[in-house]
Every structure is written in C-alpha cells, then in structure tokens.
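Our preliminary data section would be incomplete without showing what the modeling component actually yields. Below, a chain of 800 amino acids is followed by its predicted structure, encoded as tokens that our downstream tools consume directly.
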Amino acid sequence: MLKFERQQAMIESQDGVCQTRKYQVYIKNTLHHTMGILGAMGILYFLLVSFLDFYIKSTYFDGFPADGPFQLYNPMRRLAAGQTPGHDFPFFHGLGVVYLHYPLFSFFGKSLFASEMSRNIVSPLLFLISSFLFFYVCTKKMGLSLLITCFTLYFTQDFLEYILYAKNSLLGVRSTFPLLIGIFIIAMLGKYHEKWNRLCWAAYCLSICLLLSLAFFCGTEQGMASIAAYSIFHFFYVKKLKNIKKAFVESLGILFISSLGIVALFLVVSGKNFLDPIRYHLIEVPKDQFWYFGVPPNGFLYSFSQIMENFDILRASYYFTVLYGILLLCFTLFYHKKNNSSISWGIFFLILYGFLSTFSILGIYMESYCQIFLKLEIFITLVYLFTFNPVSLVEKLSSSAKKIFLGGYCFALGVLFFFLSYNIYIPNLLQTLENLTKVKHFHEKKILGVYFNEPWYKYIQAIQEHISIPLSFCSIPFDEEEYINGISTTKASLFVEYSKIAADSVQEGMKASFKKSGQRKIQKVEIAWKVIHGIRQKYIKLDLEGDLLSPGKDGYPNKIFLLEKDAHKPTVWSVYSGITEAMLEEHNPDTDYIIHALGAARRQKYIESFQKEKCDYAITMKNNWLYENWLLVANWDFYEQLAYNYDILCTTPSHVLWKKKQNAFTEQTHNWDGTLKNLENQTDAILPLNRETDGYAVVVVEVDYSIQNPWKFLPFFNNLPRYFIDPVNAHTKQIVSLSPYYKTFKFPIFIKSKEDPKLQFYVQSLLPGASFQIKELRYRYLHADQNIQETLFGVFQSKN
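Predicted structure:
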C-alpha cells in the first residue's frame, strides 16, 4: 500500500512538472507572439506616418539649392536619358547609390517628385530591413527582432538622423552593405561553423567578395573600410581554424577577388570606360577630400592639443563613439573566449569596420561621420542586452572580473535608459494629416511634379521672366494601329495633348524639338477629336518633315519643345544644376556640381567646357550662405571667366542669374600690377596696393609654391597637412587652401579699406614635418564691373 502511494505521488509530481513546463512554454510563446505583434504594429504605424510625411515633403518642395535633393536628381535624370554612369557623369558617393534609388524614381514618374520620393523612402527602408535582419540572425526570434527593430525606430531619431533619413551625404544608404556583410557572417558561420568543406568555404568566400565589391560600389570610403575590416577579420578567423600562413594567403585572396569584383561592377555599368569611375573614386576624390573639402568653413583636425582644448558637443560625440566602441570590442573579445559563436565573430567584424569608418573624420570633422559607428554600437548593445544572460557569465568570473563586467553591463543599461528618457519619438498621424491639407500653394499647377515654396517660386518666376523657356507638351500616351506612345511608326507624325495655349501657339513652319530626333519643321497642324482608351478626346496632330521619330525616346512622357523658326532652346550653365536644367530637359555640358569636378584634369576640363560651350546663361549661388566664399576661392579660374564674360540679369533669394555678353569669350590679356619675389623664408607678405580711398575691390593673387611633405609616400597620411594662405585683413574672411599637386594657384581677396592686404603662410597638420614655400607672388585688380565684383562677394544693397 505504501509503495503504491509513493508511485502515485511520483506520477502526480511528474504530471505537475509537465503541466508547469507546458504553462511556461505557453507563457513564453504568448510573450513572443505579443512582442511580435507589438513590434509589427509599431513598425507599420511608423511606415504609414513616414510615408505620408515623405509624400508631403516630396510634393511641397523646399529643398536646399546646393547638395541635398539635386545631388541625386541630376544623376538619375542622366541615367534615364541613357547616359553612361562613371563616364558621362560622376557620382561622388558611389554609383551604386544611384541604382538603389532608380527603381522608385522610375516608378513614380522620373520627375523631381519621383526623385524626392525615392530619396526619402530608400534610406529609412534600408535602415529598417538591415536592422531587422541583424537582430533576427542574432536572436533567431521573429517577435523579439520585430520589437527591437521597432525600438530603434522610435528611440534613435536624434542620434541617427543622418543614417535613418536622407541627408546630404546619404550615409544610411552607403553604410548598409557593410552591415549586410556582418549579417551574412553571423548567418553563415552560425550554420556552418567548423563544418565547412572546400566547396562551401569557396562559395562563402566568393559571396563575401561580392558583398565587399557592392559595398565599395555603393559607398567608396565605406566599401574601403569594410574591405580592410574584413581582411583583418578573415585573417584572425582562419588563423584560429588553420594557421597563420593560410590566414595570410586567404586574406590576400579576399582582397584580390574583391578588387576584381569592383572592376567587374564598373565594367558592367560603364563599359569600356570602366577605368574612369575607378580613377575618380580611388584617386581624384581622395586627393581632394582633404585640401579641397576638409578646410574652413568645414571643420578639420590639425593637432592633438586642439582636440582637447576645443572640447565641444561634436567632439564629445566622437569621443563617446570611440570609447564606447573600445568597451564593446573588449566585451566581445572576452565573451568570444567564453563562447566561440558566430555572433561574436560578426560583431567583431562590425566593430572593426566601425572604427575604420570613423577615419573619414580626418578629412572633414563632422558629427554625422560618427553616426555610422554609433548605429552599430546601438545595435550591438541591444543584441547583448536582449540575448545574453549576465548572471550565467558572472558565475564563471573572478571577483575583479565580475566588477568590470557588471560595471560595463550597468553602463550599457544606463545608455539604454538615456535613449528611453531623452530621445523618444512618436510620429503624430493626426498632425501629419493636418499638414497634408494645410500646406500653402504658391502656384496653381505643379512644376516637375511638385509645388515649390516661396523662395523657389520666386526663382522660377525669375527664370521664366529672363530665360525664355519654350512651350512644351507631350505626345498622347496611347498605342494603337501604327502609333506607339502617340508617335507614328510609318511617318513623321504624332498626336499631341490638347491645351488652349498649345492650340494657339503651334503653327506651320515652326519647329518641334525632340529628345532624340532633334529639331523638326512642322509641316501641318490638325486639331480634331479621337477616341483614345475608350474616351473621345480633343487632340493636336502634327505632321513633320524628315525621317521617322523614336517612340521610345521622343514619345510620352518625354517633353517636346515648340520653337520659333530661327530660335533654339536656351543653353544654361549652372554651378549647381537643378530646376532650370530639368525644365529645359537638358544637362550641364560637363559636371552637374562644380564641387564634383575633382582632380587637376577634371577641373581644367570643366573650365575648358565652359569656354567652349559659351552658354547663353549662367546660374550661380547667391553669396549669402556659408560656402560661397569657399567656392570662389577654390574655383577662382571659373568665376573669373564668369565675371569677364557675363552680365548679371537679376538675383533671387538663392541664386544669381547671368547673361552672356555680346563679345564674350574673346581673347583677353591680364597684366599683373605687381610681383613679390624672394619669399621662400617669409611667413607673410604685404601687397603694396597703396590705395588712396576706401571702396570694394577684388584683388587677384597668383602664387608659385613648392611643398615639402615627409609623408608624401604614405597613402592617406600624405593628405593630412593643409597649406594655407590667410588674408588676415581682407573684408571677406576665407582662408585659401593650396592644392598639394599644383605648383601655381590663383585666388581672389575682397578688400574695402585703404590698408594694404596682408597674407600669412602656414601649415596645419596632425603629423609634423610638412612645410611649403612661396617662390613668387603676383597680384592685380579684377577689372570687371563693380556690380559684378560686389555681387560675387555678397554685397546686395540694391539687389533683392
């Protein structure tokens, strides 16, 4: 009897344990599903509000006229026009960025609206996808991954705004592939770690090389950082499994095959001209990143004492990123000893990449460059907090190690609490809907698919008033019988959309200008009705002289411009191409942005193209923003040509419009007013102008110089020294940065007082030993119209 009762008790006890386990599993599954539902709902809500907000921003355009929107719109327009990327046009941040945005650009209609929608959508979408994939491969739990992804969307807005959203440099897009490489490492090593056969290992290495090539293709400096980081990672990984010799050989192999992959990608997109983009991204951009971009008014590092003496919030964010990255690296290495997992290997690669990516700050000292590493640190911290049990790890440690570990863990929790308490962002759907209905219109019809804000509309009004943009229309988008996109396939004829202004303007004998077929004389105009898509519509039929038109290149949605008998479309040269070129459906004859004509050869070609094209009009930025004086000094050869060959038409809130002079681009000789020699041992020089009265004037200075740089044979480090000429008592303060690969440099100084200008010569560099000597200095006045001189340098008393 007693034995039976014991057995019965044991059975009941086992049943109780089973019930408890079932209950625990039920609770765990319920919690997991709840986290997934909450995370998914949060993400969907964020996407909904963000999409509406992006639609508002894209429809009601207020973008900055330099950089920003047109930095992406211009190359996508060129790509849509059939131009060859890397040869016909460069893209500063990596050609792959254009291709990542192009599908949405094409889907939304290839307009400015389409460009803005693609620009606004792609960055947060890539952030969302890559963050979810990272959390999922680390946690292997869908619900938890959705919840952590949701967390990052709502609590990292201010810290990662340059990553999450589309800012000037599109850092979020450019840093996506390195994160995908880390995800791939975790996923593959987690599945096949120490179970590789040769075929699988070869497939893994080739896949990594492809991802590294894509990382370079979609962001040059981020790709270089990821290639360097992975080479180091691969060496240590193979060394652990095999030996140092094989590790070294395989790492070199990864570098070689990745390089071949990069060449193959550029060969695919640029064809026989594949060397052009490679030269641009590997030689021309890096050479100009320091002396051209990394100088005032941009911040840059020039001494270690300067870092500590000028400790501000920007440097604090950089210090925090680096110091916290060191802490994460130490913890990862420590955890890796205890638990040799693919997660720690993948995190090890990402931390290495994060450190190397911050080297960009040596070119230009900007807080946004820290956000790439900061993003990785946030992601890694969240993975550690949500996946690892600190108690189990602490039990295996010594007392001193316990204190270090718990201190780091508490610090990570403190950082998390800081995000929670300070940085929460919850999109307001009702406010977004209200914004959608209350945006002010400054013009009735959309232009390029958008409504412009007041400053931009004033600019467009000025363009339409001073630059005669011809009337344009499109063929009717229908395909039937012998017509494709409204273009006849049997004769030079087409159907055009009807409007009263078109009907009143189109006359026989005028010319129609097409995208591919050029200008064609209109022989016959017919206005009638036709059933199109089942609807009876009014249309204009044009019969033209010449051969057949191209339905794909000339037909809908490409614009057709109406020209007078002897007229032509106006030609425009903009230092920052954008709205005007899009309205004319033309492109800058050389480079869309003057700041992207990098390297001695491209910069010279830019000026020669400007002289050769002799465009009817020119458009420059108005000198009321931070960087215009820098543009003048760094690109004076262009602006001097502009001052002598163009007159000012008008100024707008953001631009200056110029018209070519009657006698433009004739041979001009400029004699120097004075020369200073024997300046090799001088640290300054005074220009003996001997002015008798005050007044605005531009003095053009040309210097012959030589540079002594003991670091010139070390790539990257050879660019750290900056060689400056500072016009200390000039009216406009802009330090002149001398190029390390020129021997002669010309620049302007803007003066007002009778005091003779003083020029100081000095070097600023993180590395010692660099110097330069001025051999000869020549100077003369700029003999251009006084109004032009003052407008170039920001004097606008009578012009608004």
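The chain has four domains: 14-422, 453-469+570-667, 472-563, 674-782. The mean pLDDT is 85. Preliminary results of this kind motivate Aim 1 of the renewal.
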